[in-house]
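Entry 12.
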Amino acid sequence: MTGATDAPPDEQSAQGFVLGPAASVEDGQARGFPGPDGRKIIVVRRNGRLFGWIDSCPHFEGGTPMAWKTDAYLDGTGQYLACHSHGALFDIETGACVLGACLGKSLTPARLYVSQDHQIRLESGQTSREIER
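Predicted 3D structure (tokens):
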């Protein structure tokens, strides 16, 4: 699996905060999962790969949640993550703002892996990682 961590099951439990089942995010879909600090983690599946981002638009100081309703993170075309507060669009794979007031800024990545029990888990650290199921 590209970019995935293959830790033994006992290490996976100790190292990764469980976000939810990998099967709960279908291709072309984005979902928000509660993170360990109370902020949501956006998980997007594109072409079989998962991408993780903190649900916080960089346009406002301190960030702001991006969805206008539960799991409404994608724009109308499904090609970009969208901040529905002010219309900014973000590249799903890089998190870079491609349109809007936050050009030059990016979403904060959440490092993910899928464990042997098929759960999406959050690793410590803040480096973007894409993974395959």
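Annotation: The domain at 9-132 is CATH 2.102.10.10 (Rieske Iron-sulfur Protein). The first strand starts at residue 17 and ends at 21.
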